[in-house]
Design goal:
The chain contains three helices and four strands; from the N terminus they run E-H-E-H-E-E-H. The chain has a single domain, classed as Rossmann fold (3-Layer(aba) Sandwich), CATH 3.40.50.2300. Helix 1 crosses helix 3 and helix 2 crosses helix 3 (113-137). By secondary structure, it is α/β, with parallel strands linked by helices. The protein has a four-stranded parallel β-sheet, covered by helices on one side. Helix 1 links the parallel strand 1 (4-10) and strand 2. The protein has helices spanning 16-27, 47-54, 113-137; strands spanning 4-10, 32-38, 74-80, 95-100.
Amino acid sequence: MSAHKVLFLCTGNSCRSQLAEALVNHLLAGEWQAFSAGTRPAGYVHPLALQVLGEVGIHHQGISKSVDEFRGETFDRVITVCDSAAEDCPVWLGRGLRTHIGFPDPALAQGSPEERLAVFRQVRDDIEKTILPFLKTASPAG
């Protein structure tokens, strides 16, 4: 049986959706294949997102992509990861069960470099603690 497909959506596709994509592809390989995209791609993956992934042994080669690259593709799950209280979440009009599991944008963190890094670590850990159990128990078909 092939892996189920999940698409993580946010606005810039530089932090949260990239973290989710990398964590799922690393920790749930074989069960799920993750992709990520944004409605207004930043054009880069945030260096601190890459750094906190590296801290847990994940060497992510992500690229900030537009949601338009995935139009017409079918996903088992589509998960928006933006913080709906603070920003507009993208709407997926393609095929796939849609779920919203929001996280604050670590790129907006203020403070010293170490304080900002701590926010990225927290979001990484929160994504792992929330998204992975959701996908493990979610029926891909609904």
